[in-house]
Amino acid sequence: MLGMPSGDHDSQRSGPARVPGPAPGSLPGPVPLMAPARDIPPAGELRILAPTAILGYGFPEASFEAGLARDPHVIAVDAGSTDPGPHYLGSGTSFVDRDAVARDLRLILRAAVARRIPVLIGSAGGSGAAPHLGWTYDIIRSVAAAEGLRFRLALISADVPRERLSAALAAGELVPLGPAPAATPEAIAATTYPVAQMGTEPFVAALDAGAEIVLAGRAYDPAVFAAVPIRAGFDAGLALHLGKILECAAIAATPGSGADCMLGTVRSDHVEVEPLAPQRVCTVTSVAAHTLYEKSDPYLLPGPGGVLDLRSTTFTQVTPRAVRIAGTVLRRTPYAVKVEGAAPAGYRTIAIAGVRDPVLIGQIDAVVAAVRAEVAANLGVDSSAYTLSVRMYGKNAVMGQREPYVGPPAHELGLVIEAVAPTQQLASQVCGAARSTLLHIGYPGRISTAGNLAFPFSPSDLEMGAVHRFSLHHLLPVSDPLELFPIRVEQVGGAS
Fold first, then answer.
1. Residue 10 CB neighbour total at 10 angstroms
2. d(C-alpha 338, C-alpha 178), whole Å
3. Which segments within 311-424 are labelled E, that is strand?
4. Paired strand residues for 473
5. Each residue of 201-257: pLDDT tens digit?
6. How far, in Å, CA of 313 to CA of 252, rounded?
């Protein structure tokens, strides 16, 4: 039976599990406890169906049905990412279309409720803050009403009170990650929706509280996949490594896709991954490579409360389509969670143009520098009030100063002229000035005076709206893995 966590899992906790009730006027309180939805079969394995890399990315119904035919014990989806940048966290919006999310949820919930398969969703709405959690919650309720579904839904919030961050900062406990600068009171105050990445423990607590569907805010990507195996007593290191592969669904297959399904199987001493579309296979190379995805160290992968140690990990091709992973160990560390935040940084206007003249391309850096100088001199605005950049696609636009290629640029360049300023009006003014100056500026060897740029769009200048920047990317120690993640359980679709 899906029992309480093993002793290894209990060691992550410094206090008893608790399910905080809702604040007055919020969601309904917890419903009575229920037995776990599924039992572990006598074979002693647990199967996890990962339908898609992100809710709303979609998946083939045939692949999903193939996964359901394997009788999974849980359907899990990591619904978010910081890959799209800070805007979505800072603005409280989703980078995925609502109708696309509703389509995916309709298929998942319909199948899960009919088969009594628990569903775990992490980083709701893409960024996992309160607006994203509420947005996805509304979609779930709409789908349930339209399909006539009934289930117990747990919501786990991940928002961190600013006073908690301020206290941690004052105590010297808020530690920057990687190249992030030290936190400041100003950065905390400017952050719109600070969130923390929860580990597996809140998901386990939600299942213990009787939830059949768990919708969580910002979460450590592998947590939604590892929670049920850990709760059942399987090895935490192997479960988390499997979660690392499943978080992007079939991207770890060949050919890879974030819009297709993957099946993970957990056993006592290993895990296996297999794509569910017949045209895809998992290979040792594809799975091992995905283990390194978004990681700075190939052997030590940190997460909440521990580090995955891959120095003894093995990858084995067990069938032409499936790969076995063994040997991964979870090394316990003092429990800390990653805190993320974004703050407003002004407004953006861009113009897109092409350059084909080899004479101009040969001196493009000097010409762009001259354009910057003319804009600063002629605009009548303090240049410190805005930023002006020109990205040159075909000349180091992707890697910037880290680009190792030192040969001649492409025969044509795509330019993105970008201005960011405190107001949209000023951003447009700066962008327009830079665009018109670059269009007509003279340069040595110029042959034609008809114009230096080719524009694909009219109007040429595109107002992009508010801009956000990452303001928090820090570690926050916690005494209890549940303390920042309150859980609320409600009945969806009427009484059971």
1. 11
2. 12
3. 314-317, 323-326, 329-332, 336-355, 387-393, 413-421
4. 340
5. 999 999 999 999 999 999 999 999 999 999 999 999 999 999 999 999 999 999 999
6. 17
Burial class (CB in 10 A: 0-12, 13-18, 19+), 381: middle
Exposure string over 405-420, b if 16+ CB within 10 A, otherwise e: eeeebeeebbbebbbb
Is the full-model pTM beyond 0.90? Answer: no
Contacts of 221-224 with C-beta under 8 Å, sequence gap 24+, read 221/78, 221/122, 221/123, 221/247, 222/78, 222/246, 222/247, 222/303, 223/122, 223/198, 223/199, 223/304, 224/76, 224/77, 224/78, 224/120, 224/121, 224/122
Quote the tokens at residue 177.
């990650």
Domain boundaries, the chain: 7-340+473-489, 357-453
Q: Which of 359, 111, 326 lies closest to 239, judged by CA?
A: 326
CB 213 within 8 A of CB 155: no
> What is the reported pLDDT for 178?
84
Alpha-carbon distances, residue 42 vs 46, 116, 227, 270 (angstroms): 10, 18, 20, 17
| Helical segments of 215-308, H only | 223-231, 236-246, 284-291
Residue 29, CA distances (Å) to 131, 134, 180, 353 in order: 20, 16, 39, 56
Handedness of CA 140, 260, 230, 221 (dihedral sign): negative
Q: How far apart are the first and last CA of the chain?
A: 22
Beta partners for residue 349, in sequence order:
419, 463
Distance CA(374)–CA(379), nearest Å, equals 8
Q: Are 64 and 52 in contact (CB under 8 A)?
A: no
Compute the C-alpha angle 127/130/136, nearest 5°.
Answer: 70
Largest CA distance in the chain: 80
Residue 3's nearest CA partner among 153, 201, 204 is: 204
d(CA 416, CA 235): 49
Mean pLDDT of 466-473: 97
- Integer Cα distance of 209 and 194 in angstroms: 26
Q: Are 253 and 285 in contact (CB under 8 A)?
A: no
The rounded distance, in Å, linking the Cα atoms of 425 and 381 is: 12
What CA–CA distances, in Å, run from 352 to 349, 419, 460?
10, 12, 7
The pLDDT mean for the chain works out to: 90
